Amino acid sequence: MNDDHRPDPDALLAQVQLADAVSKSGRLHIFLGMCPGVGKTYAMLQTARQRVKEGVEVLVGIVETHGRSETAALLEGMRVLPRRKLEHRGFTLEEFDLDAVLVQRPRLVLVDELAHTNAPGSRHAKRYQDVLELIDMGIDVYTTLNVQHIDSQVDIVRQISGVAIQETVPDSILDRAHEIQLIDLSVEKLLERMADGKVYLGERAEQAVTGFFKTGNLTALRELALRFTAERVDRDLEDIRRSRRVSSAWKTNARLLVGVGPSPYAESLIRWTRRAATRLNCPWLVVWVEGSGVLTPVEQERLTRSLGLARKLGGEVLSVTGENVAEALLQAARDRNVSQIVVGKPDKPVWWRQSFADQIILGSGDIDVCVVRPLAAVDKTSATALNDTASASVIGEYSWVLVTVFTIASVCWGIVPYTGYMVVALVFLLAVVLGAMRFSRGPVLVMAALSALCWNFFFIPPQFTFFINKAEDWIMFGMFFIVALSMGSLTSRLRMREEAERRRARLTGALLRVTQSAALAAESEKGLAEALRSINELLHAHTALIVRENDRSLPKAAHPASTFQPSRKEWGVVAWSYENKQCAGRFTDTLPESEATWFPLQTATATMGVLGLQFERETRLDFATRQMIEAFALQLALVLEKEHFIEAVSHAEVLAQSEKLHRTLLDSVSHELKTPIAVITAALEGMDNQRSPYLAEITIATQRLQRVVDSLLQMTRLESDVLKPSLDWCDLRDVIAAAQHAIGAALDTHAVRLHLAEDFPLLKLDHALLTQAVANILHNAAIYTPAGTAIDVSATLRDQQLRLIIRDHGPGLPVGAERRVFEKFYRVLGSPAGGTGLGLAIARGFVQAQGGEITARNHPDGGAEFVIELNQVSAFVPPSK
Amino acid sequence: MTALIIDDEIQIRRLLRMALESKGYTVREAEKGQFGLQEAVFLKPDVILLDLGLPDMDGVEVLKRLREWSSVPVLILSVRDQESVKLAAFDAGADDYVSKPFSTAELIARLTAIQRRQGAHDAANLQLGPLVLDPVHHEASLDGRPLKLTPTEYALLAQLVRHAGKIVTLKHLLRAVWGPQAEEQSHYLRVYANHLRKKLEGSTLEIKNEPGIGYRLEET
Fold first, then answer.
1. What domains appear along chain A, each with residue ranges and CATH number?
2. Touching check for A735 and chain B: CB below 8 Å?
3. What is the pLDDT of residues B102-122, one digit of tens each?
4. CB contact under 8 A, A731 and B190
5. Residue-range domains of chain B with CATH
6. What ipTM was estimated for this complex?
7. Burial class (CB in 10 A: 0-12, 13-18, 19+), A137
């Protein structure tokens, strides 16, 4: 054999592991086009047919032919999945049946129109989520997509065509794609096809769509698709170049940061940043600065949506706190080594202070600043409805202000003759300060202004005019006005800051309380119950905790500390969230019709279960709350994991203790039994056996005694569970030879014939255990078959299963004894004297200790046949010379 | 020649003394590990027979302390016959292992083998019965005829010949022939051992496999 061609075992192992990793997740192949009608579905079907010819198992999950006969013709002969029917408000909707595919598990499934929005009642809100689940389960997927549905391209499409696209897929799914194939068609050809009626334009709004299909629009879209694909190809090329010289995970050391707030421009800024980051191939951060201001419900809603978008597009979301937004943003940028900050262009100049962009630019130092023009998002939610509740309380405050001011005015009217009008100003000021502690900013400012005017009108002479005579009164009035305004403003800002601080403190406190009660409680059950109670109080919710069983399956019922039990329907959501390690249920995109929201309890290494929350009043889940629940979930997961580890360690300790005890006991017993035998054997050897026939008898008896002692000790060891197979490569021939050697003279009367292929591979087995098992069977055969007959040993290896067959040519087993021969102390009737009935029981024990099984039967051609079966045996075929 | 027996069983010691003295050894005995170590220091025996189950300390521990300063050949003589115990003893530096009950003849043969190793190191040519190895040219001959070997086969055979009659652990062979990083690659060793067996077929030499422990080259 040539040593140079010996494969490097490490390299082989690495290859195998790589192949394993690749095969785990399915491949995603996206057929990308510029707009409907370019032939994506057609191309997908053609490619799929090719795969069918190659022998791949292909299933058509869902394909829309839109009545085109060429496309329909391609579907002929393919296996098409029946669609799932959903009832929704009296309509029957047909949808792609995800569960059926997961059950059937084909190699490849075709799912048309990636950007499709699923009908209500489906598991996921969007079809791309179905596709992600499929590839996570190791199924390959072919799908089609138009470039205008890519999330980061939506703004550009809107600029080009004026159409706001609602159905989008996040860019991250394109990163998961193994292959993106561009289906290109010239604009003239497309228009021709359209004129021939070959392009499906959707069911409604013929003219809107035809407006969209203009040569200018189409050319721009085509450029967009081409450019998008080109960028991807460029990135892949870079990847290949890079993989030859390994270094950090990103090509450049660039890192983008975009600051977002509750403004309608945030989404556009986020999309812009994502596009830039993709082009630079660098990580990007989305930072939200939580200031002192209290967000209105509309703003809250917008912020949640923007941050959700950022997450969906693959950005890292960071929330920091700070009074000055620009400063906080710059601090975050420096902390995270950001190279570029993206800010929106200010829409109109404000003369009394610097614009936000200016502040960032001034403070940015060596960080580049990118000022971009954002587009305002189209508000989809009914903002007015949300505003109603807010404005109701504000109107209430304004009326309070009016009442207060006029009450004070009338009271002061009574005291003014005694005190003079100057004191009245102070009373008004006091009222403004007190009011600022209760009311929000707007009403306080109105109150300040109103007080000033009241004072002027009713109290400053000349009374009942706004006219002021004396210069000092003018100054007094001016100063009162300014002091009242600024006092009101300052106090109300102070109060808001205090409120924000209190809210943060409450969150931190709650997190601490949850952590402490769960982690430090002496009894874990009570601790968890305490933690759940804290969460309930804080969020006004009911919680259910589902903790996985030790075998990683989900339990039948929620943890006893839970305050609600999930219904049978909810368990499906629980299982999905647990298996996919993602949030699911209400307020999420997955199974949003559930009653509760479910968060996986995930640590770095394991998913410990699921936490469910059922909100009492909440109508939506804002970003901060969601982040907080995720923090709770992490804490609970860590606590559960810690407990799991403690349990495992103590279990291992008990095992080790009992193992040690067994070993000590076995050692001393075997010492006591074997030492006398050793003395007798050695002493006998020193004597001359020929001289006295008695000595020969003693020798035989000693050998028998030794065998019995060995058997008993082996049996004890087997039953005490201290046997642990230690696998190593071995040659089956060695095993048989060692077994023959171990039996010694008792086998001299029988010939053992080994039938083994010349190139039979090396096997990874416990050499000693298998040798003992084989020796016991061979010995058994030698005792129970007539002298001079042969024993045949053969072996086969198929699908990692080793079958070792030992066949004798004796009288065979008595009928019905095929199983009983392996029982302890069982002896076939008429057995020769001098056996314990342990040999085969021990053989079975040794085989079972290696996870195998042993069976006996009578061979049709006579004689008994013993089969040792071992599963999951690794084999090594030596490279031939 | 002096042999030191460290065993707590007086009957075993007496029997071993009789057997060894008949072969011309001077025999000293110790019934505890501590005494055994002291005797080893003062006596400088040529060979030590060591029991593993000693009353004051474990035999493997005695062996480890002994190996800190001495390379005297040590034969383990014990009732424990599990593979893991044997491997631990070999890892601690045992030269061979005989489990009780034992055959006196086999014991004497093993003793002779582990003592022979001490002198055989420096010889220009390695020889065992009909097999001659030339370490300078990496050539071998069997019964006077040249034996064709690949470099790996030669290296493996040389290791076995150098420790002829004595068990050589898998770990030792893998490390010596393939290098320290190959300790887990025992399948290669199995393959080459089989090749060597085929090449030695028909001669008086036999490569014996000790399940899970290693190989022993013996002349029959």
1. 24-243 (3.40.50.300), 256-372 (3.40.50.620), 391-498 (no CATH), 542-722 (3.30.450.40), 725-876 (3.30.565.10)
2. yes
3. 888 889 988 888 887 555 555
4. yes
5. 2-119 (3.40.50.2300), 123-219 (1.10.10.10)
6. 0.81
7. middle
